[in-house]
Structure formats: structure tokens, C-alpha cells
Amino acid sequence: MSGISKASTIMCGVLLSLTASTALAAGIDTAKERLSVYSEKPVFTAPGEPFNIRECASGKKMLSIPNNSANPFLKGIIDRMKAVGDDIGLEVVEWENQGQPSQWVQGFDFAIRDKFDVIDLISGISPDTVEPQIKAANEAGVKVMTSHFYDPSFEPNPLLSSTLPVGFNEIGKILANWVTVNTDGKGKVLTIVSREVPPTIPLVDGFESELKENCPDCEIVQEINVGVAEWGTKIQPSVQSALQAHPDIDVIIPIYDSMSQFVVPALRLTGRLGDVKVATFNGTPFVLDFIQQGAVSMDIGESLDWIAYATIDAHMRDLCGLDVPEKLNVPFYIFDAENVSEAGTPAQFDTGYGDAYISGFHELWGMN
Question: What count of other Cβ atoms lies within 10 Å of the Cβ of residue 292?
């Protein structure tokens, strides 16, 4: 090879390297910019016109059916809905279950028999799996609604009275951009998902598409798919096996943060606690405590109290024939080591987000 050819080859290699380096830096900068909005304190935005919620809710009953009562995130929301219900004259009851479809069916039977006004399917129960029960409820005059379930891209089941979607695709993008920034664009990722839960699909799609756009050198090394009812038995051993098979994994994304209670022990037993970053979504207090302890790196939080207020606001609007918001108007807020102390020590469900939403809803409902 001539001297000129060698020089040309070297120059091409240098240019390719510079191009790749520039693209990597640009991807990280884009990810940082997109993350910045979620590091600002959430702001209350009224989801609709003012109305007298006490007049609307007086004497009414709502049965909330979570996909599994063992999920502390959902338990926290329902507990707060009970408290909000007490303030406005709405009786809120949880149908406790262990994630079995037969138990969800029993919940519908109970609501119809005891003449509830609303059934709230909260986060995880696909209306498609209980269509006969929704039809029976409709015939009995019970309105069936979903909350914190659909992504805005979904077409809701037509049997529902109304829905309150959440930006799950948006959440996936936040997680991907966090990985990009916090691994210098070179993350080796283990994802933990529950594909039986419909919102998982747009969340994972958002994660994968954003990672591809801003972090082409990042790699999803393995995906662990675990059904909700099996989190307690399958997540920990599956994570341990993955870490042993792929020692280069440096980030774990359990897409719902209650999964973290089974991820942290796996990290501890494999000697990777503190070495492998963990980023997740929901803002459940025990996971925020994990951040303070150094076991989890980041959690995209939502105020459960804010969710409770927004859910009851929308359901009462539906019940009283008013326009229902197009989505659950609850902002996302990133907690990490720098700001997690704002959530309290130990962390609380509703601390760290400010309290503008409380006065905002009270004014909206004519309760000031």
C-alpha cells in the first residue's frame, strides 16, 4: 500500500471516529434537554371547568378494583381516594384481590349487588378481559371507568363510560434518556416488564425508540417478562441469572417501581448493589427510600395524592354528565440522589411535589 493510501485510510478512520463521537455527544445533549422538564417542580393545571363536587358526589359509592392489592403504588392511590372521598361525601371502597381474574369478576358482582354508582378499574385490569361483567354493570346502571391504565394512543373499550389515560410512551422515553445521560451513551441494559399489562407495550416502545435515537451504542442485553401475579417468585431469581450470564449489565430498568423490591435483593446477593444503576417509574415511597440508601438510582414519581384527586375529579364529572378530561392530568417528576430528600425521610407518598394541586382542586370544586 502506498504512503498516500495509508494516509487516506488513517484519515477516513479519524473522520469516522470524529463523526461517531459527535453523534454520541449530540445524542447525550438531546437526552439531557428532554429530561430537564421533568426536573422542575410540577405545576397544577385545572383539568376542566369548576363544578360543585360535593353536590355531585353526595350519597354516591365507588368501588375501586386494582389489578392486585399487593401493589403498594395502587394501594396508596386507593387509600388517598378514600380520604378525598370522605371530604366530598363519596364512599370509596377497595375490592381487595390477589390479581386473579376470577376475583375481579367477584368485584363486579359485589358492586352490582350493593348498588355502587361507579366501578374504577385502576391500572392493570384490561377491560377486554371483563367485558361480560362491564355489560352487566352497564345494564344495572353502574358506570365503569378506567384510571391510570390506557396510553393516549390506545383505543378504549367502547363499553367504558370514560377513561383517564397516562403517557406510558412518554415514561419510556424519560427512562431511555436517563440511561443515555447516566451511562455516557454506552449502557448495557436489563429490562424487567409485564407484557400482559397493556400499558407496558407503549412504555417499552417509547424506551426502545428513544434509546435507538439518542443512544445507538446502548444495548438492551436482555428482557425479563414476568406476570404481575409472579413478581414475588420470579423477578429475583431471573435478575440473578441475568447478571451472572451478562456481567456487563450496568443498568436495570424495572418499568414499574414495585418490581424493585425483588431487584434489590438480587443485586445484593450477586454483589452488584451500588454497581448497577436502577431506574424506574411510579414514585412509591419504599423505592424512594432505596434511592436514599443508594440501592436505586432514579424513580419517575407521580404524587399518589394528586392521582387520587385527579381520578375522583374526572369520575365525578362523568357521573354528573360533565366533560371528562382527555387524560389523567398528573405531571411526572424525577427523583434521584440530589433531590430525593424532598420526599421525606422516610419518604412519603405525597411529599416532594408541592401542594398547589390541593388548593387548586379545592378551588375548582368550590370547597374554599
Answer: 17
Would you give per-residue pLDDT tens digits along the chain (368 residues)?
Answer: 555 566 555 554 544 454 667 778 899 999 999 999 999 988 899 999 999 999 999 999 999 999 899 888 899 899 999 999 999 999 999 999 998 999 999 999 999 999 999 999 998 788 999 999 999 999 999 999 999 988 999 999 999 999 999 999 999 999 999 999 999 999 999 999 999 888 899 999 999 999 999 999 999 999 999 998 899 999 999 999 999 999 999 999 999 999 999 999 999 999 999 999 999 998 989 999 999 999 999 999 999 899 999 999 999 999 999 999 999 989 999 999 999 999 999 998 789 998 899 999 999 999 97
SS3 165: coil
pTM, rounded to two decimals: 0.83
Distances 209 to 33, 204, 218, 222 between C-alpha atoms, Å? 17, 8, 12, 16
Euclidean distance between CA atoms 125 and 51, whole angstroms: 30
Could you give the domains of the chain? 53-166+304-330 (3.40.50.2300)
